[in-house]
User: Which sequence fits this backbone?
């Protein structure tokens, strides 16, 4: 079940400092609960927490519930091999892997945090904000913070992590 929050605000209504801090704290606590995939329990909890916080701040909140099919990965996965040899399966989001074609053998490589992906004032991507220096020549898996969950990574102009898998070959696409 996917919940959409509709907010109606009376003109001039604003959050005071205490209410703003309360909203921030509750969102932070929700982030500690883990991933919020569309329709999963954590996503539903998030919308409830946000709605409750907005109501506590004096705002009017209405929710609409929709049932939709989730795009859970069916033909790919992500796992983490620890230094002690333990393999851990990692849950993933989305129906399209944005890391390129690894073939059936997959990829084993070190994980690197390359910082935050920035935006220019016109909202186009600024790859210069990522620390891409000293990357291993043997390859690596890059993680970075994105400034916006609304970036369309499947757009043709998106090149930081693009994919070489043709869209027609993706059953979920």
Assistant:
């Amino acid at each position: 079940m996917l919940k959409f929050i509709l907010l109606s605000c009376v003109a001039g209504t604003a959050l005071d400092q205490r209410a703003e801090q309360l909203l921030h704290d509750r969102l932070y606590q929700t982030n500690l609960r883990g991933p919020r995939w569309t329709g999963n329990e954590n996503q539903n909890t998030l919308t409830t927490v946000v709605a409750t916080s907005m109501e506590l701040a004096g705002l009017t909140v209405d929710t609409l519930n929709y049932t939709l099919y989730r795009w859970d990965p069916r033909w790919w996965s992500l796992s983490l091999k620890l230094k002690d040899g333990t393999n851990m399966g990692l849950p993933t989001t989305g129906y399209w892997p944005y890391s390129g074609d690894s073939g059936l053998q997959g990829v084993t490589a070190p994980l690197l945090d390359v910082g935050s992906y920035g935006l220019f004032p016109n909202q186009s991507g600024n790859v210069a904000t990522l620390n891409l220096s000293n990357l291993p020549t043997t390859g690596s898996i890059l993680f970075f913070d994105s400034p916006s969950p609304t970036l369309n990574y499947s757009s043709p102009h998106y090149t930081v992590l693009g994919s070489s898998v043709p869209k027609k070959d993706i059953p979920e696409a």
The first helix runs from residue 17 to 32. The mean pLDDT is 68. The CA atoms of residues 109 and 153 lie 22 Å apart. The helical segments are 17-32, 41-56.
